[in-house]
């Protein structure tokens, strides 16, 4: 009981912060996906409660994902109805559960650290760039649209330029006040007092934003924010209206081949995004805990099965919410569950109150989250690790900024793999030279694993060996020597005497192919 209360001291405020971050994102992603607004909230609730309970991650938070927006939009149009699309979401969940049992989660361990950190920094910068228009009072692009080319035809940077032409004094005032509160809340001076450690600054910023806007309505209507500048949570006038917001899947879709194609696409993309997000969350976790990836796939699959059954969008683990959770001081998965319960309570009884929240003060919350993900210190630390880490890091950032998450990760991975191959090409052996009375002795000590990647450098080295030398090729420390490399060595053995080279092989297996052909 004591441990539960200690955890709640950190998890309850963190859950409140994640709820405030998740609410506009759930609605914005649904809007950008061409789906019912309530579908985004359903996915947020399931991600917060069901997936959090089933997952082994202590800090990751799941919900509707910006990375799936374009796929969802195109799939709904292709299938012709949202009900058919829900049957694809249900099937995608089943596929994810199967992938979990097949232990496909191991893929998550093969993303290089430089790429994961690049993804975190890119998400941070995207948050900053995407929230600037909302902080200035220009809310044409919905929350949750994180791709470079937006649904409205604009891009990340043109949207900022447009916002400068439509400055809203009320939004700017509310955003500035909210930012001031959030920055002050993190100062060591305030941390000394219990109130400032238990009550999250994000909650105070949101309450202040509501109060300020209500004040503007009565004293200075020019500053007041209305309609598109506020949260737009669906309001149910009765229990029957609330139940009517849920949508059932069209199970006839199981006879439609296109439903299966959409399901496989969602399952693959959602699984990759989830694995990337939990890997990134583990790196941010101050307790350095590791998430069981196979269990994560099963949890995500369960979430998508339930989401598809009751009308929700497909969901994944989401790094924006997860990082907000960690930065708010979350200790266990209870914070994610609390955020899900708050989403549920909000749509049941407090939608009217929440619809008074200005998007400008939520933009301030996300600006702070973005800044913490893309701090200058991260760039400095990656630069200090050398070009082989820094270049894939920067390429990943740029690629994600100008495309989307998965394309950017793919480009970052390609660059990272190039450096891995380059290093393997260079580090196939250790070469030692020793001058002796009878001439020069050159020892080529092969490394632990010599693969076909090393063919080029070994061939060049053997070609450049001096005439009339004594050469020792030592493979005694190698666990594996690729057949391609063995062929090169034995070809060299067949011709070494013609160059006056006395060759000695140690621990080099016989080559069973046809040497010289």
Automatic annotation (TrEMBL):
GO cellular component: membrane
Start and end residues of each SLC26A/SulP transporter domain: 8-385
Subcellular localization: Membrane
Keyword Cell membrane carried by entry: no
GO BP terms, alphabetized: transmembrane transport
InterPro entries named in the record: SLC26A/SulP_dom (IPR011547), SLC26A/SulP_fam (IPR001902)
Key word Transmembrane present: yes
Lineage, top ranks: Bacteria, Pseudomonadati, Bacteroidota, Cytophagia, Cytophagales
Membrane topology value: Multi-pass membrane protein
The name this protein goes by in its record: Sulphate transporter
């Amino acid at each position: 009981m004591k441990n539960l209360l200690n955890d709640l001291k950190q998890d309850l405020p963190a859950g409140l912060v994640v709820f405030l971050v998740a609410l506009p994102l759930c609605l914005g992603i649904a809007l950008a996906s061409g789906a019912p607004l309530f579908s985004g909230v359903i996915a947020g609730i399931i991600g917060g409660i069901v997936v959090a309970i089933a997952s082994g991650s202590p800090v990751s938070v799941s919900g509707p994902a910006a990375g799936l927006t374009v796929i969802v939009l195109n799939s709904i149009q292709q299938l012709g109805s949202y009900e058919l699309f829900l049957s694809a979401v249900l099937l995608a969940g089943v596929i994810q559960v199967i992938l979990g049992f097949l232990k496909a989660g191991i893929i998550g361990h093969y993303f290089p650290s430089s790429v994961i950190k690049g993804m975190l920094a890119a998400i941070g910068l995207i948050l900053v760039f995407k929230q600037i228009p909302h902080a200035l009072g220009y809310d044409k692009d919905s929350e949750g649209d994180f791709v470079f080319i937006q649904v409205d035809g604009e891009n990340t940077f043109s949207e900022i330029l447009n916002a400068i032409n439509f400055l809203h004094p009320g939004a700017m005032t509310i955003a500035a006040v909210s930012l001031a509160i959030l920055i002050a809340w993190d100062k060591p001076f305030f941390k000394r007092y219990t109130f400032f450690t238990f009550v999250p600054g994000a909650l105070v910023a949101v309450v202040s934003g509501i109060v300020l806007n209500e004040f503007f309505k009565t004293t200075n209507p020019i500053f007041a924010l209305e309609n598109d500048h506020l949260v737009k949570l669906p309001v149910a006038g009765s229990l029957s209206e609330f139940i009517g917001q849920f949508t059932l899947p069209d199970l006839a879709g199981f006879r439609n081949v296109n439903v299966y194609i959409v399901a496989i696409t969602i399952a693959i993309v959602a699984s990759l995004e989830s694995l990337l997000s939990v890997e990134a969350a583990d790196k941010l976790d101050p307790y350095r805990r590791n998430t069981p990836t196979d269990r994560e796939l099963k949890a995500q699959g369960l979430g998508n099965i339930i989401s598809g059954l009751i009308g929700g969008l497909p969901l994944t683990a989401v790094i924006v919410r997860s990082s907000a959770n960690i930065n708010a001081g979350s200790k266990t998965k209870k914070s994610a569950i609390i955020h899900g319960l708050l989403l549920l309570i909000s749509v049941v009884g407090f939608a009217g109150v929440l619809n008074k929240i200005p998007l400008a003060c939520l933009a301030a919350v996300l600006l702070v989250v973005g800044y913490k993900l893309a701090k200058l210190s991260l760039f400095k630390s990656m630069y200090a690790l050398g070009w082989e880490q820094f270049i894939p890091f920067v390429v990943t950032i740029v690629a994600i900024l100008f495309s989307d998450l998965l394309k950017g990760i793919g480009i970052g991975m390609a660059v990272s793999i190039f450096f891995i191959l380059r290093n393997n090409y260079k580090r196939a052996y250790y070469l030692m030279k020793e001058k002796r009375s009878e001439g020069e002795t050159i020892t080529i000590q092969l490394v632990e694993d010599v693969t076909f990647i090393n063919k080029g450098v070994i061939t060049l080295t053997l070609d450049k060996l001096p005439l009339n030398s004594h050469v020792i090729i030592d493979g005694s420390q190698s666990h594996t020597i690729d057949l391609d490399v063995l062929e090169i060595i034995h070809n060299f053995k067949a011709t070494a005497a013609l160059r006056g080279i006395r060759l000695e092989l140690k621990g080099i297996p016989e080559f069973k192919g046809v040497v010289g052909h």
